[in-house]
Write a structure and sequence with these properties.
- InterPro entries: Chl_b_Red (IPR052625), NAD(P)-bd_dom_sf (IPR036291), Sc_DH/Rdtase_CS (IPR020904), SDR_fam (IPR002347).
- The chain is α/β, with parallel strands linked by helices and 336 residues long.
- 41% of the residues lie in helices and 11% in strands.
- The protein contains eleven helices and nine strands.
- Strands 5-4-3-6-7-8-9 form a seven-stranded parallel sheet, sandwiched between helices.
- Strand 6, helix 5 and strand 7 form a beta-alpha-beta unit.
- Helix 2 packs across helix 10 and helix 4 packs parallel to helix 5.
- The termini are far apart.
Length: 336
């Protein structure tokens, strides 16, 4: 796939030297049947050709394995699908916290618009933008910020289709599955390979949505699969089996957010009822999620985490308030 890039200079990371943090093990494989250095070799990058942070040696002198460097803010954050909706709100919140953000989109027009807005508000040194996917996106991330602490897989699509499954076209199904399932897997693969080669390690957050989605069932099915993929990759599963101990995959659940995708399908009476009760704006959701995301590397935690904005208790309390007191009636859409 052809790629287009529009980038702004990110603040350069301090380096301790060009040496890599890990020597590649002999006859090792990152994943079964694949070269350990697959991610680098496929791009023609010699080992150590990129700037690296030098890992601190373990107590006891030379010969021991390197110790993971502690993460410290400002963090380098990459967010897919971040030119609008919850992705854009997350990006702005990270920037407000002083972090550096790489914003991604398939639309060059949206990238240019977002670039102009963020340059004015936060300055060029904190922002990188790219119209890229998967491998090319990783190359961009290596070349600009040189490492990524937090990678958020937010991009998703319902193919702009609000039809029952039996009426959904092959093309729409292919787009939904390609973006939400295959795209997520490819991004996770590339992020893991990139972060495995970082002395700081890294954190990957996959955004899921476990709610049933009538009128776009394929979308709901693909988003539900995110939970299973994340569990399969987490520390005590596939990553640990392959001795990837410095990369952690987390789940991130924003709940119902008043994005274009949600609101354009708010035509049925039942949909309007639940949107008014349970949904929140992207800014409100980001205000909650970003501090909780940043807390994980700040505490040097390497445990998988499930961060939920709309918990079961919050949902039930809102439903009760609506039934008992009429709370949030017509909050976002007119129900009458």
């Amino acid at each position: 796939m052809a790629t287009v890039a529009a980038s702004l200079p990110l603040r350069a990371a301090a380096r301790a030297g060009p040496a890599p943090s890990r020597a590649p093990p002999s006859d090792a494989a990152f994943f079964p049947g694949r070269p350990w250095q697959r991610g680098l070799a496929a791009r023609g990058r010699p080992w150590g050709s990129v700037g690296w942070f030098r890992a601190e040696a373990l107590p006891g002198g030379a010969g021991g394995p390197p110790r993971r460097e502690p993460m410290a803010p400002p963090y380098n954050v990459l967010i897919t699908g971040s030119t609008k909706g919850i992705g854009y709100a997350l990006a702005r919140k990270f920037l407000k916290a002083g972090d550096n953000v790489v914003i991604c989109s398939r639309s060059a027009e949206r990238v240019e618009s977002v670039a102009n807005d963020l340059k004015k508000e936060f300055g060029e040194q904190h922002v990188g933008l790219s119209v890229m996917l998967e491998k090319a996106l990783v190359d961009f991330a290596r070349d600009k910020p040189e490492y990524i602490d937090i990678w958020i897989n937010n991009a998703g699509s319902n193919a702009y289709s609000y039809k029952p499954l039996v009426e959904t076209s092959d093309e729409a199904l292919i787009e939904v599955i390609t973006t939400n399932t295959l795209g997520l897997m490819l991004c996770c693969r590339e992020a893991i390979n990139m972060m495995w080669n970082q002395p700081r390690g890294g954190h990957i957050f996959n955004i899921d949505d476990g709610r049933p989605t009538p009128r776009f069932a394929a979308y709901g099915a693909t988003k539900r699969s995110v939970v299973h993929l994340t569990k399969s990759l987490q520390v005590k599963a596939e990553l640990q089996m392959n001795e990837v101990n410095d990369v952690v995959v987390h789940n991130l659940s924003p709940g119902m957010v008043t994005t274009d995708l949600l609101m354009s399908g708010a035509t049925a009476k039942q949909a309007k009822f639940f949107i008014n009760i349970l949904a929140e704006t992207p800014d409100v959701v980001a205000d909650y999620l970003v501090p909780n995301i940043r807390e994980i590397p700040t505490k040097q935690s390497m445990k998988p985490t499930y961060i939920r904005f709309l918990t079961g208790l919050k949902a039930y309390s809102r439903i009760f308030s609506r039934i008992a007191f009429g709370a949030r009636r017509n909050k976002y859409v007119a129900e009458d």
